[in-house]
Write a structure and sequence with these properties.
With 340 residues, the protein is α/β, with parallel strands linked by helices. Helices cover 31% and strands 14% of the residues. Helix 2 runs parallel beside helix 4, helix 4 packs parallel to helix 5 and helix 8 crosses helix 11. It is globular and about 50 Å long.
Length: 340
């Protein structure tokens, strides 16, 4: 692996961390078996989102690279290629940990140049993935944001967010806090194969209930809706019904998109588990990374109709309002990848 890809050099990109600051650890415990952590000291932690992404926020914080959730469709897989790490199993098992993220964030938020803009987290890889249980970076990050009353949002599939509920409540008392949990489907068989490292959809929706009961508004990003595997009318109905019962403040559907890096890994998985669908996917995504506009609109309409039936708005005051679902792909940008 070439750490120099992110350590700068003559004619190279701006350094993100020094090669002499990398420590690699393999933890031989059941919960981390097969996972290698690369501990780095980052040189910056607040990242600007490229304007072409069309996100309603400009800044993100990502304490990790790679994700043990191991979602076969994860759009962020390509980022591992910047380090010459494998974008398949390597993305799932080689986790880069920015160990100085909290102290670095405090410094950057305290700069006279910082405007106090909204900061989004979980838009690249999940900040509440399994590694967070070991490194505990998020409490310090939330504390830094709370101290500055800096607005922020978190998108996660991780129930570990409940550990930080008291901190979230304290932050919500002084600034705007948006929480959104990602649940694309409630089909247990589909979950076990496409999101093998995540808590179950039921556990995630239970976390939504806990958050909302504690006074933290929580929306659900219904993502991804997976064509031919998770988009049957009865599947959509079951998922929206479960989301409504969780007390979520909003539900926002997002159809699967397959960017380079994720596309190859997902296609290999599809060929192994559902070979009869490979040709259908080739046709569905022949135009690029996104499903056709008509299909995206169809899913959105169905979900919104079901949401109205079950008494939950398609968008509300919760964090889901920050997630914009584009009908067409945004232009490519060289900066950090974003969720949509």
């Amino acid at each position: 692996m070439r750490w120099e890809n992110l350590t700068g050099g003559p004619g190279g990109p701006a350094a993100l961390f020094g090669a002499d600051a990398v420590v690699t650890r393999t933890i031989d415990t059941p919960e981390f078996r097969g996972i290698t952590f690369h501990e780095v000291r980052a040189r910056s932690i607040v990242n600007r989102v490229p304007g072409a992404s069309r996100m309603p926020f400009e800044w993100t914080v990502n304490p990790y690279r790679g994700c043990s959730h191991a979602c076969v469709y994860c759009f962020a897989r390509k980022t591992h290629g910047y380090l010459d790490l494998d974008t398949g199993i390597g993305f799932d098992s080689q986790i880069v940990v920015k160990t100085n993220a909290p102290e670095l964030l405090r410094r950057e938020l305290g700069s006279s140049r910082w405007s106090g803009a909204h900061i989004a987290m979980g838009t690249n890889v999940d900040c509440y993935q399994r590694a967070e249980g070991r490194y505990r970076l998020m409490p310090g990050i939330i504390e830094a944001l709370r101290e500055r009353a800096n607005p922020f949002s978190i998108l996660t599939k991780g129930t570990l967010i409940l550990r930080d509920l008291p901190l979230l409540q304290e932050a919500a008392a002084v600034t705007e806090v948006g929480i959104s949990v990602s649940v694309g489907f409630t089909d247990a068989a589909l979950w076990r194969t496409v999101e093998p490292g995540t808590p179950s959809p039921a556990a995630r929706l239970s976390a939504v209930r806990t958050l909302t009961d504690a006074g933290i508004e929580c929306g659900v990003l219904m993502a991804p809706v997976i064509p031919f595997l998770g988009d049957a009318p009865e599947q959509l109905r079951d998922t929206v019904r479960a989301i409504a019962r969780s007390g979520a403040t909003s539900v926002t559907p997002l159809v699967l998109h397959l960017r380079p890096g994720a596309r190859e890994w997902f296609t290999a998985w599809l060929g192994a588990h559902h070979p009869h669908l490979v040709e259908r996917y080739e046709r569905m995504y022949a135009g690029g990374s996104y499903a056709p506009t008509w299909y995206q609109r169809q899913i959105t309409r169905q979900v919104h109709e079901l949401a109205a039936e079950f008494g939950i708005g398609p968008s509300g005051r919760g964090a889901a309002r920050r997630v914009v679902v584009p009908e067409r792909p945004a232009p490519a940008a060289p900066a950090q990848l974003t969720l949509l």
